[in-house]
Amino acid sequence: MPAREVIAVASYTPEQEKAIFDLDRSLVVTAGAGSGKTRVLVGRYVNILEEQAADIDEVIAITFTEKAANEMKGRAWEEIIKREKKAGSPEEARRWRELARRLQSARISTIDSFCAQLVREYPIEAGVDPEFAIMDELDMRRAMYAAARSAVDKMLQRKDPYMTSLVVDKGFGVVAEALCRVFEKLRMTGKPFDECLGITMVSLDQSEAEAERALTDLKFVLAAAAESRGVPANVDHLKLEPPQPGSPELFDVPGLMLKIDSVATGLKLKKRSNEQKEIDELKAVLYECLLDRFAREGVRSVVDACKLMDEEYRAQRGNGAMMDFTGIELAARDLLRDTPAGAACRSRFKFVLVDEYQDTNRLQDEIVSLITGEPYGNRRFVVGDPKQSIYRFRGAVVEVFEEAVRAAVGDAAGLADKCGCIELGINFRSAGPLVDVTNALFAKILGPVRFSPAKSHRTAPSPDIPRAELMLVRLEGKEKGPKGELEAEVLARRIAEMVGNEERLVCETIVGEDGPMAAARPVGYGDIAVLLRTMTHVKEFEAALSRHGIPYYVVGGAGFYGRPEVIWLVDLLRAIDDRSDVTSLAAVLRAPVFGLSDESLLRLKMAAGSLDRAVWDEEAGSDPAGTAGEPDAPGARGLIGAELAKFRRARTCLRTLAAAAGRMPVGALVKAAIEIGGFEEHFAFVEQGAQSIGNLRKLAQMAEDETSARSCLHDFIADMEFAGDLSAREAEAAMEEESADTVKVMTVHKSKGLEFPVVFVPELARPARRSGGGLFEYSLSLGLAAPVQVRDEWRRTTRHVQAVAEDIRAGDDEEGKRCLYVAATRASDYLVGSATLPGPGSRAWSSGGPSWYEHLCSAMPELGEGGSANVPGAIVVDRETGAAILVRRCEELDIRELMQETGGQLDEAAAGWDSQTERAGREAPRPRDEPPGIAEFAPLAGPVRFVAGAAKTPSQFSVSALMCFSHCARWYLYEYVYRLGRIPRDLRNAFGAELQLNAAVRGQVVHSVCERCGHATDSAQARALLLEELHLRGADNVLAYSVADELMPMVDTFLRRYPGPSREGHREIGFLMDVGGPIVSGVMDRVDVLPDGSVLVVDFKTNRVSGAAVDEEAARYAVQLDAYAVAAGRVYCADRVTARLHFLYTDEVCDRSYGPGELLQAAEGLRKLADEASRHDLRNTPIRRIAECDRCYFAQLCGFTAQDPYGFFDDSPEDEDDISPAD
Asked: Are 770 and 808 in contact (CB under 8 A)?
């Protein structure tokens, strides 16, 4: 898919120039979405080096993620290289070259990485082990939970009355988990525990004062009511009195409430009178405030428990031998604040640049301040956007950045002369109409204080056409919550419609005769991202995308430990680790991998006395079925037939693995369990089986990775159980490369810092989940909240607890608005939101915080009930700004009918779910099985429509599939029929330290460069293209240059053999041809029509072969040569074709000539091969060992081990199934 051409901005904006070149003072830069803050950050960094204001080791640049740090290094390297080339003297060039060399070790990193490096440099001062290890999340949670249990236990040993009562009522584990959560929050503040307690006590003192005011007001109201009725009333006795002797309560609150009720009853007030209402309200306030008197003991007890937990947690971490990220930050803060090393660092580092400052917490802010010192002078430069602060759950405090902005604004006003504030207000990312929409919505959602409208830099080709879309799904019944599967179905259909109809939604700038002009290109899968608020319902969206054949990639995610295949495999490990674990044994036997019925398990128990004896005891388990041929034998209580065969297989598997346990590493044992248990064979034939197989392999890899640290099977099982109980956020195995042409599915948080041409934001109407509600909570401004006990009853309705909860809720609601802003501003060209609305007569869903749809309706009421959005196909226009949103509507019954009619497959009806919104002039929807652009392949077979589900095997074959089948039928079945998917590989492995290139990636790079070379391209220009292709595939600058040296000879061979205009030729010719029934598709690298009317078709190879090996290697590609020859002959109406393999590395060619007879024979051979392939399945395809098994991705499924799984045809540039995948 062609990338959008970006026309570089000719110069910096005035605001960007100030931010980059003003090195005389510290600056706070407010940078909205798409405003070029990374460019500014890099520009200032390089400008510091250019002005020689500091050496590269004297500058710190802190980013939010490691990915952002690597991006900044890459951009800085490019700028440094530019300056080296433009240097005015050899000395200056050498200086820039030296800076480029040292950039790899420059301090450009996350705050955690910087702190870790700093602490390692001063381990003695920091009080840590110089070789400390950084804990992963699972180790940290395990150690923290153990420390919490120890702390609670010590509190009980001390006979702490509060903690003892709490544990008795709530349970030991519940209290320990709550202590873990509040301990983590308190640590992230960076404040001592006693200081957090002091903040709480201040809040409780305010509650005490409010109680006194409420009691005074209440006495006044009672006295006034008595006087107005002429009734005597004594209110002087309404005061808090000490409790009765022996009472455990600190204050007699219930007694006071009874006295107040007695006085009020004597007044004989009507229940609905104003006086009675006021009395009831004051009583409620008084009661809530008085309960806070009981809270002091509780918060002191919780803080004491946190102190004990801190000590125990240090011990769990080996007193500095292992560190978590918060511990590293605390150690760095103490180092900078309390040791002479702090002064040394302040004099050592001259400039500190911090990105995403709105997502820092108080502790990180303190670290930055300790590095720069007070006053800042010109040392500090922070960039952020308070509208994009969305990491409260990590302790981020948006007020940190807002305080920095206010301080800078005050300095600019003349209060001081040390800091300035700059706002970057131009959006370079999003098209103009899209910027208008975000301005119109968020000016009202976020308010004028926190939002300032952005100016658009990019123009759209048709500015009057809406570039924002809202899809509304209306339910029929009274549902308690949104139905995610319906919205997922609508989203998947809309994506299929976009791509299938080649909707021109992606804006690009092209350079014409009159200069740059706006244009648009069709949207592809790789242009689209689906942003979810949480991953809770991601499976529904995955299922919908899969049903419609849409390739997708889930970024991050969770749910790994809850997958059935993972649970079953862990059950199997439990059963062989502990033979008395009957529960796990039964779960394994019932699992679909073995598939015994409950009745069979009961028969086994009755025959052997117990289930574990039936499996493990030689005597009891020798023949659980008795004599199968004698139905009246005693063993008739056992199993017969298929159930007996299942049990014997399961028993053999369990005994074999149990015998190996303890004798082999855990990783090898898990792999053996997958292989012997037949897990992959089972999941090869189930829906989403490839995902399950990937998860099993990931678990095996996790076991192998842990073998060095934990060689005991029991410990590995304990880790898996702990992670499952913790609901650890472990993503499932990746089935697609993230860089592939796939729809990206991720959370809004994962999308931070990214952009996509088309963005879908579903589940707008789902209520927001709020944090808080735990046993203990903490607010930065109000302190710690804990339940109080009044007469054996635990209460959370105290004034202080409610204030803390309200503060947390308010923060969550504000962050929800900012999260919506981040989601909306990820789109550069087109934005689609979707919401599921309750049915007629239903109440709005209110379990949780306000939904994003509620926020949208508050900003643009026409989108809500009764607005113009109720008209199908309406375009809602904001009256003030003119921003336009296209609204599509669909009813639940309509969606279900489409799903039922099509069986989840997309057809013409899929595009018509809201036919009234069809745009004028749009082409008819393309059939599901017809790939984009198929009509351009004439005069071959032309558009071909297949009936979904007509056959179990494909009637359409790519050339790659046929070549694969000609060598190994089982590989063909695994990859092209059952679609198991190849072993996921990280493309970065292709650029390892030893520069061992994956042959397939090497072929892709060389093919891409040759395709892009024009008739005037010289070697230097081709090398630049080669470097660009390597960078796109993940190579950094240093490695890319080394790899380019290796690949450049092949590119030079292409330039030399195809000089000048002859280089153009006909390249990348796709075809789809009928060979007498089956359809064959592929792409020819190059086709030349020779002067004599014959045709030369060339396929470039990057294999390193020469001499006699050329003919041998060419024989492996016989099917490909036949297919290309037949296709070229039909396309160019030629009866004489030469098919050539050109091995670029050795510059050797192998030609095969075809006349009319040979072409007919080749076509017939392709038909026979395709017919034979269509008749194969795993049942009639025996396993046979061949040489290629050592390179097979699926060797394990046949019982072999692949030494180097790169594939049969390891120079293939890309999977030709992308042209027209077989169904």
From this structure: yes
Rounded to whole angstroms, how far apart are CA atoms 657 and 655? Answer: 5
Closest CA to 428 of 985, 10, 115: 10
Phi, psi of 1140 (to 5 degrees): -120, 135
The answer to whether the beta carbons of residues 762 and 528 sit under 8 Å apart is: no
Cα 587 to Cα 648: distance, rounded to the nearest angstrom: 16
CB burial class (10 A; 0-12, 13-18, 19+) of residue 90?
A: exposed
Q: Which residues contact 993 (CB under 8 A, 6 or more apart)?
A: none
* Mean pLDDT score, 386-393: 90
842 to 839, 845, 847, 1212: CA distances (angstroms): 6, 9, 14, 57
Kindly report the backbone phi and psi dihedral angles of residue 830, in degrees, each rounded to the nearest multiple of 5, phi listed first.
-150, 135
DSSP annotation of 661 = B
* The Cα angle at residue 1085 between residues 985 and 506, in degrees rounded to 5: 70
Query: For the whole model, what pTM was predicted?
Result: 0.67
Residue with tokens 């500015």: 463
Q: Which residues pair with 426 in a beta bridge?
A: 455
Q: How far is CA 482 from CA 813, 816, 819, in A?
A: 20, 18, 20
How far is it, in rounded angstroms, from Cα 840 to Cα 750?
Answer: 36
Q: Measure the CA–CA gap between 782 and 198, rounded to whole angstroms.
A: 10
| CA dist 880 → 441, 446, 457, 883, 884 (Å) | 11, 17, 21, 8, 11
Q: Do the beta carbons of residue 111 and residue 369 sit within 8 Å?
A: no
Q: In angstroms, rounded to a whole number, what is the distance separating the alpha carbons of residues 178 and 675? A: 41
Question: What tens digit of pLDDT does each residue of 791-837 get?
Answer: 667 777 788 888 898 899 999 999 999 999 999 999 999 999 999 98
Which residues, other chains included, contact 343 with Cβ-Cβ below 8 Å and sequence gap of 6+?
none
Beta strand segments in 40-162, E: 59-63, 107-110, 133-134
Residue-wise pLDDT for 727-780, tens only, equals 555 555 555 555 668 899 999 998 988 999 999 999 999 888 777 678 899 998
Distance CA 1013, CA 1061 (A): 11
What pLDDT shows up at residue 730? 57
Distance between CA 497 and CA 928 in Å, rounded?
Answer: 10
Measured CA to CA, the distance from residue 84 to residue 106 in angstroms comes to 18
Contact of 1189 with 1198, CB cutoff 8 Å:
yes
d(CA 426, CA 35): 5
Q: CA-based angle 339:342:347, to the nearest 5? A: 145
The whole-angstrom separation of Cα 31 and Cα 20 is 13
* Helix (H), strand (E), coil (C) string for 466-500: CCEEEEEEECCCCCCCCCHHHHHHHHHHHHHHHHH
Q: Tokens 């040392």 sit at which residue?
A: 379
The sign of the torsion formed by the CA atoms of 601, 605, 611, 613 equals negative
Instruction: Give the bridge partners for 1137, in sequence order.
Output: 1095, 1154
Residue whose C-alpha is closest to residue 302's, from 142, 170, 141, 397: 170
In order, the DSSP letters of 712-741 are: -HHHHHHHHHHHHHHT---PPPP-S-TTSS
Using 50, 70 and 90 to split pLDDT, how confident is the model at 470?
Answer: very high
3-class DSSP state for residue 987? helix
Say if CB 432 and CB 404 are below 8 A apart: no
Q: Which residues contact 49 (CB under 8 A, 6 or more apart)?
A: 56, 59, 80, 99
Confidence tier at 852 by pLDDT (50, 70, 90): very high
First to last CA, the chain: 22
Interhelix angle 1037-1057/999-1012, rounded to 10 degrees, is 60
Condensed to tens digits (0 to 9), the pLDDT of residues 1176-1217 reads: 877 778 887 777 777 676 776 676 665 544 444 444 433 343
